[in-house]
Structures are given as structure tokens and as C-alpha cells.
């Protein structure tokens, strides 16, 4: 993942912003008696990217991955609309309790740029629902140059999205966040429709880093910089999530990327261990070859 990549991450101020003034209100008004649900995973499961993760001879990569992690941010669905049979295969390859968080196909987000999205949403939903109870929150990621001047397309998309299917929206153009009127309008429409506002933490795009939740879901896409600062950044997220849970947060969906994905599982294992301690959880800590073999180099 190259989004927000910088050559000198040590020069970046990675301090998390203060919470938006309305985040605590949203958590207090959307609180439920449901137990805390926490899903932490990577973006991909293929061997080529996740080196030092699969034991030698592993053939069923998804089968192994899904027995180490409880979820996957399914980026593959961005590039094409998979047939329903493929979703069914993924469903049957994974254990009970595993969840997929698929990205909406780029035909809707990037090629059509939400134009006439009502024509394409039903087919996408029909295929994706083949994941049944293993379907987590779907997410829409817009192009970097998709601007607020096209807010009418966002409204149309939201109005045509089925309310029973959870979704999170990610915007990357800076004007969605640096113009208070635009930002407030966006936050309001997401909150009114119980849709999550994706939080993106990446080195080179601190301008879109925000702390505004719009429902009882923290959908966080963390992009490590392949730098030792990745660990302290994750420590800061544990502290912030602990705060939000104390305010009523019930759903944490945290996905760990890196510019070079090779050690995403190692970062994930570190983060899960910290979360388990901070939130009294018992999430499985994925095993990596770096952990099992002292001769295998670790991240730094």
C-alpha cells in the first residue's frame, strides 16, 4: 500500500489528533448493551506479500490465515466483481466467527465515480451477501481527487444503499476535512444513516487524519511506514481505543497495512497483544515465523 508513503517517516509528527467534539456524544447516544466486538486483520492473505508468515509448504493460504486472524480487509474485491461462487468458497474455507470486510468494486467508486450507483449497488450486494454471517462492514473508498463538489453523488449513493447492510465510507481529498461546512455536512449525513466514517492513519496524509466517529464503530485503516515508529503509533491507538470503549464504543475494526506488506502480521500480533492487555480481551495472537524462529529477522 503506497498511499501516504514518505521517504523519511522519522520527520513526521504522528501524534493522534484530539477527538472531534461530537465523537463522545455519538458514542454515548449510540451505546448498546452488546458485548465489545474487536476484529484485527491485514489487507491480504497471499504468500507473496505476507512473507515470514506462512509455514513452508502451506497451500491453503486463506485457510491458514483465517485460523490465525479473526478477519481480513478484503481489498481483492476492489479490482473486480467476483462471482457469488467465489464468495461462497471463501465462506466455506474460513472458520466460524471469521469476518470479511470487503472494499466496494472500483467500477462504482473510481470508474463511475458514484454516477448512477443505484444501478450497480444491487448486484454488488447480491454477490457479497453470499458471505452470510461472515460479512463484516463493507467499505467504500473514493479516489484521491473525488471532491465535495460531487456531494450530490454521495447523497445518491447513501440514499440507495440498503440500510440493513453495514458500510463505512473513506474520503481522501483534503477538502472533505479542511472545510468545516463540508466536513460537518458529511459527518451529519453519515451519522443520520448509521454509516461509519473511516479513519485513515498514514504518514504522508496527516491532513485527512480525523477523530470523528459517526456511529458505534471505529473502522481504522492503519498504514505503517516500515519504520520503528509503527510500534509507538500502535501504542497510541491502544490508548485512544481504550478511551472510546470507556465512552461506549462496542465495535473496533482495525486493519494493518504497510507500504511493504511483508511484516504486517508481525505488527498485527504486537497490536493484538497490547489490545488484549488494555481491554481484557482474549483475541488469538497470530504466530509468525519471526516469532517462532530466532534466526528470522524481525521488522527492525
Automatic annotation (TrEMBL):
Pfam families named among the record's database cross-references: DUF72
Protein name in UniProt: Uncharacterized conserved protein YecE, DUF72 family
Native species: Dokdonia pacifica
Source taxonomy: Bacteria, Pseudomonadati, Bacteroidota, Flavobacteriia, Flavobacteriales
Amino acid at each position: 500500500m503506497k498511499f501516504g508513503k514518505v521517504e523519511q517517516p522519522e520527520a513526521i509528527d504522528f501524534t493522534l489528533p484530539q477527538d472531534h467534539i461530537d465523537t463522545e456524544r455519538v458514542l454515548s447516544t449510540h451505546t448498546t448493551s452488546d458485548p465489545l466486538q474487536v476484529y484485527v486483520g491485514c489487507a491480504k492473505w497471499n504468500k507473496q506479500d505476507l512473507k515470514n508468515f506462512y509455514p513452508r509448504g502451506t497451500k491453503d493460504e486463506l485457510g491458514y490465515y483465517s485460523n490465525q486472524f479473526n478477519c481480513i480487509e478484503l481489498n481483492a474485491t476492489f479490482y473486480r466483481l467476483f462471482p457469488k461462487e467465489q464468495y461462497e468458497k471463501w465462506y466455506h474455507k474460513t472458520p466460524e466467527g471469521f469476518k470479511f470486510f470487503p472494499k466496494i468494486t472500483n467500477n462504482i467508486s473510481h470508474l463511475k465515480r458514484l454516477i448512477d450507483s443505484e444501478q450497480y449497488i444491487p448486484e454488488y450486494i447480491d454477490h457479497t451477501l453470499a458471505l452470510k454471517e461472515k460479512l463484516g462492514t463493507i467499505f467504500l473508498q473514493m479516489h484521491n481527487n473525488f471532491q465535495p463538489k460531487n456531494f450530490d453523488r454521495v447523497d445518491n449513493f447513501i440514499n440507495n444503499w440498503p440500510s440493513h447492510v453495514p458500510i463505512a465510507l473513506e474520503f481522501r481529498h483534503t477538502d472533505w476535512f479542511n472545510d468545516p461546512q463540508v466536513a460537518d455536512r458529511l459527518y451529519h449525513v453519515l451519522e443520520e444513516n448509521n454509516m461509519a466514517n473511516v479513519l485513515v492513519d498514514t504518514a504522508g496524509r496527516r491532513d485527512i487524519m480525523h477523530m470523528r466517529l459517526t456511529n458505534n464503530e471505529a473502522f481504522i485503516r492503519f498504514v505503517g511506514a516500515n519504520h520503528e515508529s509503527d510500534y509507538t503509533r500502535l501504542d497510541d491507538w491502544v490508548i485512544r481505543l481504550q478511551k472510546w470503549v470507556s465512552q461506549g464504543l462496542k465495535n473496533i475494526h482495525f486493519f494493518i497495512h504497510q507500504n511493504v506488506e511483508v511484516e504486517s502480521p508481525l505488527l498485527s500480533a504486537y497490536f493484538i497483544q497490547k489490545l488484549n492487555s488494555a481491554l481484557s480481551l482474549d483475541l488469538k495472537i497470530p504466530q509468525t515465523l519471526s516469532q517462532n524462529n530466532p534466526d528470522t529477522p524481525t521488522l527492525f
